[in-house]
Give the backbone structure.
Amino acid sequence: MTVVKQIAQTLVQLCRAWKFPEAQATLFHEDAVNLEPDGRTTTGLAAIMAKEQAFLHSITERHLLEISDPVVADEYFAVQLLMDVTINGIGRRTRNDLCIYKVHGGKIIHEQFFY
């Protein structure tokens, strides 16, 4: 099994268990970059984790989380993430994301979301 496939499978396993911060702390490079569909860029593991923690703390109820098995090609992998949650002050929201990751040196160095 390739390193990229191992990282992809570990990410999916942790995220399916709502362990997003643990996945980031374990699998992401300290200089990783996150790119959102609206163009917002977050650089650095600490900033990415802070953004994720803020999002997770805003969730008041979890209704659904489905994450596909990863599709791996060379140093990239992709998963589909379907999330239905109630967010404090916003209400119930469903997101259906395509998440693409790039791995280099045994760590995720780039993640980009499409929704």
